[in-house]
Amino acid sequence: MLTTTVFDTRAYDRESLLRAAAGFPIEWRFLDFRLTRETAALARGARAVCVFVNDELDRPCLEAVAGLGVELVALRCTGFNNVDLAAAKELRLPVVRVPVYSPHAVAEHAVALLLALNRKIHRAFNRVRDLNFALQGLEGFDLHGKTAGIVGTGKIGRVAAQILRGFGMRVLAYDPYPNHDWASQHAVEYTDVSSVIGLSDVISLHTPLTPETKHLVRWETIELMKPGVILINVSRGALIETRALIEALKSGRLGGVALDVYEEEEGIFFEDLSGQVLQDDDLARLLTFPNVLITAHQAFLTREALDDIARTTVANLRALTEGKPFVEGSVLV
Ligand code: NAI
């Protein structure tokens, strides 16, 4: 029996993991709070810990987990910016992730946000429910014929680009490792990052969070953008410097901003805080803008993506017990 402590879980995580593990003896210990240095002791007795995007696997946390005899950290996500990989390596604690799961889930959510924001569906929904059938202030623009800029043409960025090409948009893209075959197949134009930022009516960010991409969107970048641009971020919150974004929104420079991720989302996103006072003033300010649409890190939340995530996670746990190699592409340390 492989004991696995699974942090930060909700019903949908538990159901998909149980489904994927059917017939394989795993003793799941599902916890609904995050793994941090303070909660690491709860991994006692487990051979593996399973975590998500906002667990904090810094050095003290990893030391604590390794000290308890945990043999594997399995991330239920693609991004791994929340793990101190150098510390894990020193501790000889293997870390695996889900290298690929439905990129359509995430790209389609980015486009859903774009369509809702541009056509002001979030505002129209509230109005109509209040029997306010007036259209004043709900004007959008045709995406057809406009220019979209995709920053990062990995698995998700490519799907987003293809969907936007389907709308008849011109698509510009930047990636330090361009995929020219794919670009010519879909008539996507690679260019430098400043041109993508400066020439696009819609900008969508699809890079991982790294020291290089942190605050990719800051005051100097925003100044390059066309007035009225729509900015979409479904990747990681810290790609955008929140304070600069708020200033740009206050000045009216930006047409709209849709976020599925937020720089300080840990401890807020995934929680029901509806009866509480929101303590994050920047998030509170963002929520006041009529042209800001925020979802709480739900881009991955489709049946297909959850099943992909659970299958890879269970396959890696099986590999641990059977002494076999982990799923290809999943090993970080
Ligand atoms: P990927 O690894 O397939 O693609 C990332 C691309 O970004 C690569 O082509 C890489 O060359 C490029 N890149 C790296 N540095 C760059 C830079 N400075 N400028 C432009 N491009 C750069 O990753 P994938 O699967 O497409 O995911 C992208 C990100 O989306 C993940 O790292 C994760 O943070 C985020 N994500 C968010 C989810 C959500 O639920 N909101 C779900 C899944 C992923």
Brief write-up:
By secondary structure, the chain is an alpha/beta fold. The protein is 35% helix and 14% strand. The protein has helices at 11-20, 59-67, 85-90, 103-118, 121-129, 155-166, 180-186, 193-199, 219-224, 242-250, 281-286, 303-322, and strands spanning 2-6, 26-30, 48-51, 72-75, 95-96, 147-151, 170-174, 188-190, 202-205, 230-233, 256-259, 292-294.
Structural summary, described in words:
The chain is an alpha/beta fold and 333 residues long. The chain folds into 2 domains: 2-101 and 302-322, 3-Layer(aba) Sandwich (Rossmann fold); 103-294, Rossmann fold, CATH 3.40.50. The protein contains 12 helices and 12 strands. The protein has helices at residues 11-20, 59-67, 85-90, 103-118, 121-129, 155-166, 180-186, 193-199, 219-224, 242-250, 281-286, 303-322; strands spanning 2-6, 26-30, 48-51, 72-75, 95-96, 147-151, 170-174, 188-190, 202-205, 230-233, 256-259, 292-294. The protein has a 7-stranded parallel sheet with strand order 8-7-6-9-10-11-12, with helices on both faces. A 5-stranded parallel sheet has the order 2-1-3-4-5, with helices on one face. Strand 9, helix 9 and strand 10 form a beta-alpha-beta unit. Helix 1 packs across helix 12 (303-322) and helix 4 packs across helix 6. It is globular, with a radius of gyration of 21 Å. Bound molecules: 1,4-dihydronicotinamide adenine dinucleotide (NAI).
